[in-house]
Amino acid sequence: MRLNLEKVSLPEPGPGQVLVRVEAAPINPSDLGLMFGPADMSTLARDGDALTARIPDAAMASLKPRLGQSMPVGNEGAGTVIAAGPDQQGMMGKRVAMLGGAMYARLRLIAAAECMVLPEGATAEQGAALYVNPLTALGFVETMRAEGHKAIVHAPAASNLGQMLVKICKADGIGLVNIVRSPRQMELLRGLGATHVVDSSSDTFRSDLTEAIAETGATLAFDAIGGGETTSIILNAMETVASRDAAAYDRYGSASAKQAYIYGALDTGPTILRRGFGFSWNIGGWLLFRALQRLDPAAVQRMRKRVADEMTTTFASHYTARIPLEQVLEPETVAAYVRKSTGEKYLITP
Amino acid sequence: MRLNLEKVSLPEPGPGQVLVRVEAAPINPSDLGLMFGPADMSTLARDGDALTARIPDAAMASLKPRLGQSMPVGNEGAGTVIAAGPDQQGMMGKRVAMLGGAMYARLRLIAAAECMVLPEGATAEQGAALYVNPLTALGFVETMRAEGHKAIVHAPAASNLGQMLVKICKADGIGLVNIVRSPRQMELLRGLGATHVVDSSSDTFRSDLTEAIAETGATLAFDAIGGGETTSIILNAMETVASRDAAAYDRYGSASAKQAYIYGALDTGPTILRRGFGFSWNIGGWLLFRALQRLDPAAVQRMRKRVADEMTTTFASHYTARIPLEQVLEPETVAAYVRKSTGEKYLITP
């Protein structure tokens, strides 16, 4: 694996296009996935200006289509329009939020339609992360509505995304069970107004989770951990609650439809399912880009409007540190931002 | 866990009911699930006329609603009507196939609507297993049609059910990838006209599976093993095929919608998912009774008619041995029928 900064020349903006000076771009877990993939991070090394690491042999098969391709990174970001196509002159000087990849750069040539103009006075930092986390959190709620569930279990819930979800569910009166990994994270979410927070590091985790599910009636879960037993533990807790309500023992488990989505891979190890949850269950992958295509367009419209309306409140992100572009590949910096500690988030400021 | 034969008195058949002398009832894996559940079979012991076994402590929590309840067993069977309600006198003397539980008995009082009258000359053995396996195999095909897939992967494919599926898919021109566990089973299915048979005991299993999936275009799988890595291996093979066809590398995996259903638990150990298959996947439980409620009623009607039409061909079952009711609880007999060897099937002949 080889990561480097590269000089590119960009053409003048054509019709429908603008050239943006990128001022801030967050490092999301999905960006780290593209940057480092399954590389063995203990083998990180500088090679001139580039950063290299070994890919374990077992992971190479699935990476075959990736070999030899140079891929720019950075899903989203914000900046100022410094040049514009002939039909986009009104965009000149505006600060915009962008989605579309290749944001870890000084300049980004992009379709004006893929930019959201920020309100007067908004900073690039406020606009840098208005797509991935906000739309994902709102996407969970719209998925819940579309699939007929009434409450959500979320893990790990103390992330920036999780904090947005707490605010959304509180405002909308939606039951939310937050799974966190420490007492400190529990305090953080309670401070935001979360009602149901359970700590997976506690001895009473499973019974706490079961009671929270019973109180909210949650039959839908979103899990960004992916590996290990989190999804399995959630489904088993849902089944325990559903069986309590059942009139008689059913050897095939309850008929309650239990759905879990794995939307991340913070733990890239295997998912372990202890199938004590009968036969009425579903586990699937959930990916924002594909969910946006599947959801009702009216719902997507509603989501986008809400992000714009609540950018400085519900959808405000908090950053652990700011990293200039030229420091992004320094090994000590990399070591910090690849940790993926819940609630820590880094911002690249080209 | 305690299993025993019990004397019961049955009332006279009322309106809409018939009394059937049960002549044959198969032991399906789903029956074994109800009979023994998670019991530790190494602790099987006679206790007077009953059979007992210890339930491991870890399994007790999920069995709480089951404790102290006596549950009759035997999902399906066939027999002769020996008494009938006043409005069902036309059923007298008819041989019928039945679904509805409590079939491991000399007599079964049942709604006439739950019986299928067998053609003149049909034996009870021919009629004993006309519900669970035939409707499950046809249910796979109807699920495939309803969800927009074009071919199926099935494991383990050499079972009675698997053999029916081979015949159905051959007759209907549907692509079917059969996963078997030995060269002998491979021969068996080839003899029935199966085109794609891959042997999980072979060194080339994964590449054989991938090529068979490529040739059929299968994006749907049914797995009765449940535990271990079978489902995971199938989804990864589907993803390998889908990525080959992709125009460019996508870090989130292919957009090809891959669906796997776990419809049994021959291996009750945990399901292990090595998520090399991107984010467009779904795994769910599949249960005949619930699928019949979900499927289009016209499809279910079509399924039932086909079972009646093809009972001696497509849906003929083969039995390893016949067991009189009084021998069902003898330890040596139990040891044989709980093995769940693929392709072995036992028939109780009360």
TrEMBL record, chains A, B:
<keyword id="KW-0560">Oxidoreductase</keyword>
<protein>
    <submittedName>
        <fullName>Zinc-binding dehydrogenase</fullName>
    </submittedName>
</protein>
<dbReference type="InterPro" id="IPR011032">
    <property type="entry name" value="GroES-like_sf"/>
</dbReference>
<keyword id="KW-0521">NADP</keyword>
<feature type="domain" description="Enoyl reductase (ER)">
    <location>
        <begin position="2"/>
        <end position="348"/>
    </location>
</feature>
<dbReference type="Pfam" id="PF00107">
    <property type="entry name" value="ADH_zinc_N"/>
</dbReference>
<dbReference type="InterPro" id="IPR020843">
    <property type="entry name" value="ER"/>
</dbReference>
<dbReference type="InterPro" id="IPR013154">
    <property type="entry name" value="ADH-like_N"/>
</dbReference>
<dbReference type="InterPro" id="IPR036291">
    <property type="entry name" value="NAD(P)-bd_dom_sf"/>
</dbReference>
<dbReference type="Pfam" id="PF08240">
    <property type="entry name" value="ADH_N"/>
</dbReference>
<dbReference type="InterPro" id="IPR013149">
    <property type="entry name" value="ADH-like_C"/>
</dbReference>
